[in-house]
Amino acid sequence: MATHPDLGKEIEVLFRAESEALFRYASTLPEVDRARAEDLVQTTFVAAMEDWSRLGRLCPERQRRWLYAVLKNKAIDQWRQGRRLQLVGDCEEAREHARSETEHHVLSVVALDLAWEMISAMPGQRQRVAFLCWNEEWSSREVAEWLGITQETVRSHLKLARDQLMRAVGPAAPFRDDQGADWIDGRKAGS
């Protein structure tokens, strides 16, 4: 920054001549309110003081163009910084959503693994019914025909299997009664 004795007076003369028009210009820029416009004018003149050794040698018209260019660049920098902060905030929100999605996924996988472990330990006929209905998405009629049992027996095995899973796995069971209401004859409604 230049430190010659007339620096303050020269900057003051420039400020008095250009600050009002510079403020009006700053107020026309996107996302610039009155307070930001005032700040931009102030930071522009601070930059003028810091670069006065070069700026002071320019004619008044070139000084004016320099001030407008610096103010515009500072406004763009502030806008970019604000965008960067907003994007960082968006990234944080996305990361938080991903963390909650990951947590939900992990808990679902654990519950599903436990459920299939429980199904594997069920009596043979119930295990086959559960597997064919829930994994292969067969209807109770298809399971009954395949296993040579009645559809009522298939539904009974499904209810016993679901009850057993609810006791063992609890609310994380993938085949809960509130979801079970969506199951019709061993198939997901709408399938």
From TrEMBL:
Q: Which UniProt keywords apply?
A: DNA-binding, Sigma factor, Transcription, Transcription regulation
- Signal peptide segment: none
Origin species, per record, is: Actinoallomurus acaciae
Presence of keyword NADP: no
Please state every residue range assigned to the domain named RNA polymerase sigma factor 70 region 4 type.
Answer: 115-165
Q: Can the keyword DNA-binding be found in this entry's annotation?
A: yes
InterPro entries in the cross-refs? RNA_pol_sigma-70-like, RNA_pol_sigma-70_dom, RNA_pol_sigma70_r2, RNA_pol_sigma70_r4_t2, RNA_pol_sigma_r2, RNA_pol_sigma_r3/r4-like, WH-like_DNA-bd_sf
Name of the protein in its database record: RNA polymerase sigma factor
Question: What is the similarity comment for this entry?
Answer: Belongs to the sigma-70 factor family. ECF subfamily.
Question: From which domain of life does this come?
Answer: Bacteria
UniProt cross-references to Pfam families, sorted A to Z:
Sigma70_r2 (PF04542), Sigma70_r4_2 (PF08281)
Occurrences of domain RNA polymerase sigma-70 region (ranges): 14-84
